[in-house]
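Re: the multi-chain job from yesterday

Posting the exact lines I submitted so nobody has to dig through the queue logs.
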Amino acid sequence: MPDTVPSFAPRGDKAAVEEGDRLAPKFDADGLITAVAVDARDGAVLMLAHMDAQALALTIETGFAHYYSRSRRRLWKKGEESGHVQKVVELSIDCDQDAVLMRVETAGPGAACHTGHRSCFFRSVPLGAPPSPELQLTVNDGGKLFDPSQVYAAAKKTDTPRF
Amino acid sequence: MPDTVPSFAPRGDKAAVEEGDRLAPKFDADGLITAVAVDARDGAVLMLAHMDAQALALTIETGFAHYYSRSRRRLWKKGEESGHVQKVVELSIDCDQDAVLMRVETAGPGAACHTGHRSCFFRSVPLGAPPSPELQLTVNDGGKLFDPSQVYAAAKKTDTPRF
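And the result, structure tokens for all chains:
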């Protein structure tokens, strides 16, 4: 983990931020940007989480996805407990530089969601009528790829990506 | 536009939220959830933005993507100015229900970014070294699909999706 504060470019004007060639991320009031991980194999969206400056810097430096857990209020290397680390194949940033997109290869069964599903977005919402408390979600995948009670119960630490 | 406050299910416990079949979105302190739009043709991530309760409800009811613009502080139907509306083919919600994913068909040239690029994530970040102000982004697409000065200069309103 670096001892120094991560060093990005200054924000500059709108044109520089939106179309320039310097990385000048815009962290929000909580010091976070949004991060989306997609499967490098087929582009499927796996998960959405957040990064602080340190998590973004570590992701860029190490090539493994790091996030900031808002619930646990700490840096979080994806897979530190489950072993399902995410190797980043490509990292891109959006026009106003407040979100990053990562194409990742996931160690283990290829699932990103702590529920055991491949993607966190495993439930679809019916369209065409106003939402109501009765509106019923449908599961849009083939089921879980791992049993969370097995993977997280062990609570084992691993630093060895299983590629 | 509906006159009533959108009606979602109550949040319930962790299991109900994460694995249940009811839509119980978690809006943040600013009343927003995150929304990711991907191209229904090939799954490419196009953009990331935010929705308030009304934008989410209108998206579900009308089948066209609505967002909440944090900079303009108002409801925003994607394409209201450019004509590049997003017809939602599928909308899914993530495990903790604070983010939605939409597969969309985009009217016009098929671009989502106001810069003219297909995707807002058109610049990639080199990996393998700590970030620095000198780090250089590279453009990862084939260039712009439309000229923003032409599309937005007209500032024309259109309610007619061009499908």
